[in-house]
User: What shape does this take?
Amino acid sequence: MRVLGLISGTSHDGIDCALVRWSADGDVLSGVVEHTGTVPYPPGLRAAIVAALPPNSTDMGEVCRLDTLVGQAFADAAARCPAADLVCSHGQTVYHWVEEGRVRGTLQLGQSAWIAERLGVPVVSDLRVRDVAAGGQGAPLVSAFDLPLLSRLPASAGRAGALNLGGIANLTVASTVGEPPLAYDTGPASALLDAAVLAATGRPYDEDGRLAAAGKVHEGLLAELLAEPYYHRPPPKTTGKELFHAGYLERVAVPYALGLPDLLATLAALTAETVAAEIRRHRLGTVVVSGGGVRNPALMRALHVRAAGLRLLPSDDLGVPSDAKEAIAFSYLGWLTAHGLPGTVPACTGAAGPRVLGTITPGRGPLRLPEPLGAPPRSVRMGAVDPDTV
Assistant: This one.
């Protein structure tokens, strides 16, 4: 079954696409990545999304317009990809409603009917809300993909984790004897870095981390940033740009009046330290890393320093292109839903139990889904990767 995964993350710069051909053999699921790509949002649409995000206010008319325009952009992106049997669309998160550590709601825009109408195949969408309704955080849903992927690592890797460095950093920790798996957002990855660059230069990000590399960490500001209560809450927990937005950065950083390179160096150190602290806490030996932050050398150097002794393994080495990891994960979640299988790990999201995720929008013909399967895959094998060579 070919499933096209689509997602726009907390950097809201474009739509990541991944077409994966999935085939099951007992409790092992094999995936061959046949296509990946990113389709940038049109500048006007990206500006409208940014204008609707916290701390800005918006109205229902703009929500309706964005739901349509984002849905049409996702349909356009999907139409550029090879043919699929099913699409799984994450959409664009515009708000994640958290009160006192509890997620009360989550909103992803991008009406799936536009994709179904354009491609004529079924679309799985609105995946997070079912987990929230079951008492979970609604994230990180990629943990359902991370855990069977990590099972491919050899025992010599030690306790393993998966780290995605997008706008927000999230960590999945594999289970060990006596300890269940965990997954949660550790804090910002590129969210505050990008906000600082955009405010100062109008550019969307620090290309190749050059500005951050030229700066010096301000220990006073770093200490104040690390005092944020979110970092000290126990998992499961999730966050996003409803907390770590430009207004947050302005409130904390402006009094220090740092130049942009020093500010970016300090923000890179913040991401590295908050991630490294969790890696140390869980005594991880190997972490499979993915996401746009992998392309920021300043951030990766800071992480190597603060997580000394850790083996950081690019997800590419497991057959998962790092830029497309989340789109591949949503392709996997779509496959699970199509086969009647749960796409959540309760120990990771905090839900009352595993749940089949999403709403299915039919394509042009009658809705025909595969026969339901009894249990999710124990292991996911991507391509022809031999774990003994990892």
